[in-house]
Design a protein that fits this description.
The complex is a heterodimer of chains A (112) and B (113).
Chain A lengths: L3 E4 L2 E4 L5 E7 L5 E7 L5 E9 L2 E4 L6 E3 L9 E3 L8 E8 L6 E3 L3 E5 L1
Parallel strand pairs in A: 2-11
Antiparallel strand pairs in A: 1-3, 3-8, 4-5, 4-9, 5-6, 7-8, 9-10, 9-11
Chain B lengths: L3 E4 L2 E5 L4 E7 L6 E7 L6 E7 L4 E4 L2 E6 L4 E6 L8 E7 L9 E2 L3 E6 L1
Parallel strand pairs in B: 2-11
Antiparallel strand pairs in B: 1-3, 3-8, 4-5, 4-9, 6-7, 7-8, 9-10, 9-11
The chains are: A mainly beta (112), B mainly beta (113).
Chain lengths: 112, 113
């Protein structure tokens, strides 16, 4: 059953701690993305990767880091430098440029 | 960079009526415009997309129109049904931009019985 999986669904973090969100896909897609969704602000791009071992900053990369060591995996680390990390995070993948993006079910991160 | 504006932010229609959501974009190089639907608690899913070489595309009750000169595109839903209630996002992308889509802020559509 092909798809894109994010884990965990809910995540709680204490202030000052780093946390890593998982994103795995078995669609054989080259491109992967991380978006942040806040009420009234749509989806904002954090980082994207067009190919293994390569990634670029999106519009709101500050306080986040990523890696792309395997085609199937694109984990996102929310660092303590992110001033307002509480949000809903969506991972997506696509076969190539200007093709359908398939989204994961999201991870809701809450800083406590 | 690209800026995509979406209106209205909320839209309420009676079942069976039509709904129209409008988006404008700033980058004249944008040439790919998808629309995503996100039901409550679920992931966004593509419902229709249009490329800049066509002016209109239709899929059953859903249609999208594109005006490249004015840099705006619209989603039209006819004969609305309760299951159309969701948040709809427009987006714009540029060939050569790495599929780096810029999304609008979303429209909450409510179809009332």
């Amino acid at each position: 059953d092909g798809g894109i999986t994010q884990s965990p669904k809910y995540l709680f973090r204490k202030e000052g701690q780093n946390v890593t969100l998982s994103c795995e896909q078995n669609l054989n897609h080259d491109a992967m993305y991380w978006y942040r969704q806040d009420p009234g602000q749509g989806l904002r791009l954090i980082y994207y990767s067009q190919i293994v071992n390569d990634f670029q900053k999106g519009d709101i990369a500050e306080g986040y880091s990523v890696s792309r060591e395997k085609k199937e995996s694109f984990p996102l680390t929310v660092t303590s430098a992110q001033k307002n990390p509480t949000a809903f995070y969506l991972c997506a993948s696509s076969l190539g440029e200007n093709t359908e993006a398939f989204f994961g079910q999201g991870t809701r991160l809450t800083v406590v | 960079g690209e800026n995509v504006e979406q209106h209205p932010s909320t839209l309420s229609v009676q079942e069976g009526d039509s709904a129209v959501i409008k988006c404008t974009y700033s980058d004249s190089a944008s040439n790919y415009f998808p629309w995503y639907k996100q039901e409550l608690g679920k992931r966004p899913q593509l419902i229709i997309d249009i490329r800049s070489n066509v002016g209109e595309k239709k899929d059953q009750r859903i249609a999208v129109t594109l005006n490249k000169t004015a840099k705006h595109f619209s989603l039209h839903i006819t004969e609305t049904q309760p299951e159309d209630s969701a948040v709809y996002f427009c987006a714009g992308g540029v060939t050569g931009g790495g599929n780096k889509l810029t999304f609008g802020t979303g429209t909450q559509l409510k179809v009332e019985l």
